[in-house]
Design brief:
The complex is a heterodimer of chains A (256) and B (212). Chain A has helices at 32-42, 59-72, 86-95, 104-108, 111-120, 158-168, 189-196, 212-220, 231-234, 240-249; strands at 5-13, 16-21, 24-30, 47-51, 77-80, 99-102, 125-133, 143-147, 152-157, 172-177, 203-206, 226-229. By secondary structure, chain A is α/β, with parallel strands linked by helices. In chain A, helix 2 (59-72) packs parallel to helix 3. The radius of gyration of chain A is 17 Å and the shape is globular. In chain B, the strands form two sheets. In chain B, strands 2-1-3-4-13-12-11-8-9 form a nine-stranded mixed β-sheet. In chain B, strands 6-5-7-10 form a four-stranded mixed β-sheet, with helices on one face. Chain B is globular. The chains are: A alpha/beta (256), B alpha/beta (212). The interface between A and B is large, with 42 and 43 residues.
Chain lengths: 256, 212
C-alpha cells in the first residue's frame, strides 16, 4: 500500500535557500542543491520549493536553481510561487520540476487550473490553499481562503474552494493554515479533516509543525496523505529520518 | 558508441529522465530526439510520458513516431515509463477511449474513484507517492533491486494486460495491479524510476545494460 509522505519545504529567494518568520528577518540558509541533497540523503519523499523572490526579473535564477537540483536529486520536486500562466508551468516543468503549485492565480482565474491540467496532466498541478478560521466563538468552524501570502481575503469558503479546485483539475492540494503557520503549535487538523473528507485527490498538510507528534496528528487526525514542514528540519530540530522513524513506530506506513 | 534514445514527443519533463540515464549510462550515449531517423539509429529506446493519452497518441502520430516505435519494438530493447507504458497496450479508457500502440495485448483502465463521503482514510485518485513493487517473476531489469522495493508513482489509470505471462511486477492500490510488464525485448513500468532514488537508478542501469 501507498506510504504517507514527508516533505521538507524550502523557501527560495534569488537562488538561495532562506529562512525567516513570515517573510521578515529573512536569513540565508544555504545552497539549494546542498540542502536538497541533505534532505534526499535523510529520506525525504519529495521536496517543495517555494520561490519568494519579489522581482520577476530574477525569475531565470529560479529556473537555474530548479535545473541544478533536478540534475542531482532523484526524488519528486514541486515548485511554487508566482506561477501565473501555462508558459510559467511549462518553463518550470522543462527546468526539471515534477509538479507546480498554483495559489493566487487559481483564485484570480480558476480556469487556469483546468487549462494547465489539460495541457500538462493533472498529476503535475498542485493547488495551494491558504486558509484562515473566520467563524466567531461558539459558531461551527468556517475557513476563508486568503491570497498574497495571507494578506488578502477572497471571500471564498475554503472547503467549497477545495472542491471547486478538484473539479477544475487540481491533482493534489497543499493546504496551509495561516493561523498556525510559524506558531509551532501543530496543523489545523480540523481544517485538514474537513477538506480531506470532501475531495478525491491527495492532500498535503502545511503550517504549524513544531514537533514530530504534530506530523502524526496531521496524518491521523487531519487525514492528510503527506505532511510538509520547514523550520523543524531547517533548524536541525529533527532530521527527516527521525520524523519517519517516529511515524513508523506509531504504525504509519512510511518508506524507510 | 552504444546509445540510448529518449523519445521526445513534447509532453512532460524529460530533464530528470535524461540526467538519470546519463548518470547510469557508463559508456552509453544518451540522445533525446523527436526525429524518427535519429531514434532508429539508437541501440535502445525509452518512451516516457506524462499527461493524457489522447494528446500523447496525437503527438506520436503527428511526429510520425508511432510507426517508428512499432518498428523498433520488433528488435530493440525498449522501456516504456508511466504513460509510455500505458500506450504500449491496445487501448486506454482515458479521454473517452483511445486506441494505443498494441505492443502488449490488454487495456488501460481507471482506478475506481473514492466515494464522495467515505471519510478521510479512503484511497484517493491519482495514486500518488511511494509504493512497494512486488516482483512477480525474475528479469534482468530487477537485478540488484530487492523484492517489494519502494518506487514513486503518479497515475490515475493502470494497465490490465490480457496475458498474465507479461506481468513482471505488481503493486497494491485499491486492488493488485500490474505495474511492470515485459515480453521479448520490451519492458514497461508504471512508476517513475527517474524519481525513485537509488532503486530507480539501479533499474535504469539494468535497462541500459540489458541484452535481451
Amino acid at each position: 500500500m501507498l506510504a504517507k509522505r514527508i516533505i521538507p519545504c524550502l523557501d527560495i529567494d534569488r537562488g538561495r535557500v532562506v529562512k525567516g518568520v513570515k517573510f521578515e528577518d529573512v536569513q540565508d540558509a544555504g545552497d539549494p542543491v546542498e540542502v536538497a541533497r541533505k534532505y534526499d540523503a535523510q529520506g525525504a519523499d519529495e521536496l517543495v520549493f517555494l520561490d519568494i523572490t519579489a522581482s520577476v526579473d530574477d525569475r531565470p535564477t529560479l529556473f537555474q536553481t530548479v535545473e541544478a537540483v533536478a540534475s542531482q536529486i532523484y526524488i519528486p520536486l514541486t515548485v511554487g510561487g508566482g506561477v501565473r500562466s501555462c508558459a510559467d508551468v511549462r518553463a518550470l516543468l522543462s527546468a526539471g520540476a515534477d509538479k507546480v503549485s498554483i495559489n493566487t492565480s487559481a483564485v484570480e482565474n480558476p480556469d487556469f487550473v483546468t487549462e494547465a491540467g489539460d495541457r500538462y496532466g493533472v498529476q503535475c498541478i498542485v493547488v495551494a490553499i491558504d486558509a484562515k478560521r473566520v467563524n466567531k466563538k461558539k459558531e461551527p468552524p468556517r475557513w476563508e481562503v486568503f491570497t498574497h501570502g495571507g494578506r488578502r481575503a477572497t471571500g471564498l469558503d475554503a472547503i467549497e474552494w477545495a472542491k471547486t479546485m478538484v473539479r477544475k483539475g487540481a491533482g493534489e492540494l497543499l493546504v496551509t493554515s495561516i493561523d498556525r503557520d510559524g506558531t509551532k503549535s501543530g496543523y489545523d487538523n480540523e481544517l485538514l479533516a474537513a477538506i480531506s473528507a470532501s475531495v478525491s485527490v491527495p492532500l498535503i498538510a502545511s503550517g504549524g509543525v513544531g514537533d514530530l507528534e504534530h506530523l502524526y496528528q496531521g496524518l491521523a487526525a487531519g487525514g492528510a496523505d503527506a505532511v510538509l514542514a520547514a523550520s523543524i528540519f531547517h533548524q536541525g530540530t529533527y532530521t527527516v529520518g527521525e520524523a519517519k522513524k517516529y511515524l513508523s513506530d506509531k504504525g504509519v506506513r512510511i518508506r524507510l | 558508441m552504444a546509445s540510448v534514445g529518449i523519445i521526445d514527443y513534447g509532453m512532460g519533463n524529460l530533464h530528470s529522465l535524461g540526467k538519470a540515464l546519463e548518470r547510469v549510462a557508463g559508456g552509453t550515449r544518451v540522445v533525446t530526439s523527436y526525429d524518427p531517423d535519429v531514434l532508429l539509429k539508437c541501440d535502445r529506446l525509452v518512451l516516457p510520458g506524462v499527461g493524457g493519452v489522447r494528446e500523447c497518441m496525437r503527438e506520436l502520430q503527428r511526429l510520425e513516431l508511432n510507426q517508428m516505435v512499432i518498428e523498433a519494438a520488433r528488435k530493440k530493447p525498449m522501456l516504456g515509463i508511466c504513460l509510455g507504458m500505458q500506450v504500449f497496450l491496445e487501448w486506454s479508457d482515458e479521454n473517452g477511449g483511445v486506441p494505443a500502440l498494441g505492443l502488449f495485448p490488454g487495456k488501460v483502465t481507471r482506478f475506481p474513484d473514492p466515494p464522495e463521503d467515505g471519510g478521510a482514510d479512503r484511497l484517493k485518485v491519482p495514486h500518488m507517492g511511494w509504493n512497494r513493487v512486488h516482483q512477480t517473476r525474475a528479469h534482468p531489469l530487477w537485478e540488484g533491486v530487492p523484492d517489494d522495493t519502494w518506487f514513486y508513482f503518479v497515475h490515475s489509470y493502470h494497465a490490465e494486460p490480457a496475458c498474465a505471462d507479461h506481468v513482471l511486477g505488481s503493486s497494491d492500490y485499491t486492488k493488485t495491479f500490474a505495474c511492470a510488464l515485459a515480453r521479448d525485448n520490451l519492458v514497461a513500468v508504471q512508476f517513475h524510476p527517474e524519481k525513485s532514488q537509488n532503486a530507480g537508478m539501479t533499474l535504469l542501469a539494468n535497462f541500459v545494460q540489458w541484452d535481451p
